[in-house]
Amino acid sequence: MKTPTLTVRVVRKTAEATDIATFELVDAQGDALPPFSAGAHIDVHLPNGLVRQYSLCNDSAETHRYLIGVLRDPASRGGSLAMHDLVNEGDILQISAPKNHFPLAHEARRSLLLAGGIGITPILCMAERLAISGAEFDLHYCTRSPARTAFRNRIRGSAFTSRVHFHFDDGDAAQKLDIAATLDKVEDGTHLYVCGPKGFMNAVLDTARAAGWPEAQLHYEFFAADVGPSDSDESFEVKLASSGRVIKVEKDKTIITALAAAGVEIPFSCEQGVCGTCLTRVLEGVPDHKDNYLTPEEQAANDQLLPCCSRARSPMLVLDL
């Protein structure tokens, strides 16, 4: 089941950095766009039929436009290439209303923002919002090189530029980010936010957890995941709690595709276990979590799962559907 979409026009496509383009979107009829908060993203329906999630990186107080930044990634599943090669100024696109699974914790006394590559998009919006509100924060921005650093001039021209630390892979060792040293002190009231490539995010989160950071102070959002079939996948059954109906999920099918084939549709978007749109309560059974959305504690509770990618460790799952 697809959620309603908004019709927007691409009014500006800009080469922001090497292999990174920004797209400015406005309502096709000139109306105001739905409001959003720092950390929000939109689903973009691409010309090749794919749907991909992109963080909004303009001022969250703006209602006349949305701005997204997209990395051209040859190893992607086709989303970034479609944005770069098929979407041009003047084109009409369908997008979702903004969703925010990566919000700022406004009770934080201090925020530590870590961005890797194109992960700067939600982090930059957060930094600007924190600066406007007068909150304490520091931003570490890691990229391969200055030429691949999106929004560098925007950051350098900002009022909070002194709080931003750039780290380049091709620079000298002294300026590279020491993740362990950055996260070695766990302070009450300090919240950590991280976005970027999966390897970068895992390194940051693993280091933070090893240093004793409470899960409630860790905030992150993955936009891609490896959720392909595994040799260990087996068929299982799901039972719909409302009707008692039992549906078999074959080893090469996802729960969502099995449900759809049986005429049962639930909202979904990314199909990679990163956006949370299809989150479903589990009433009985043990899920086999394959997502990057739930925290380790949430996964261990086994009372919810992402049916777009996760499976079952038990012969049956009873779902709150």
UniProtKB/TrEMBL annotation:
Which Gene3D superfamilies would you find in this protein's record? 3.10.20.30, Nucleotide-binding domain of ferredoxin-NADP reductase (FNR) module, Translation factors
Annotated GO molecular function terms are:
2 iron, 2 sulfur cluster binding; metal ion binding; oxidoreductase activity
- The name of this protein is Oxidoreductase
Looking at the record, the residues that make up the FAD-binding FR-type domain are 3-105
Top-level taxon of origin: Bacteria
- Annotated organism of origin: Thauera propionica
Swiss-Prot/TrEMBL cofactor(s)? FMN
Upper lineage is: Bacteria, Pseudomonadati, Pseudomonadota, Betaproteobacteria, Rhodocyclales
Keywords on this record? 2Fe-2S, Flavoprotein, FMN, Iron, Iron-sulfur, Metal-binding, Oxidoreductase
Alphabetized PROSITE patterns for the sequence: 2FE2S_FER_1 (PS00197), 2FE2S_FER_2 (PS51085), FAD_FR (PS51384)
Q: Does the keyword Transcription apply?
A: no
Q: Which residues form the 2Fe-2S ferredoxin-type domain?
A: 236-321
The record, for InterPro entries, names: 2Fe-2S_ferredoxin-like_sf (IPR036010), 2Fe-2S_ferredoxin-type (IPR001041), 2Fe2S_fd_BS (IPR006058), Beta-grasp_dom_sf (IPR012675), DmmA-like_N (IPR054582), FAD-bd_FR_type (IPR017927), FNR_nucleotide-bd (IPR039261), MRET (IPR050415)
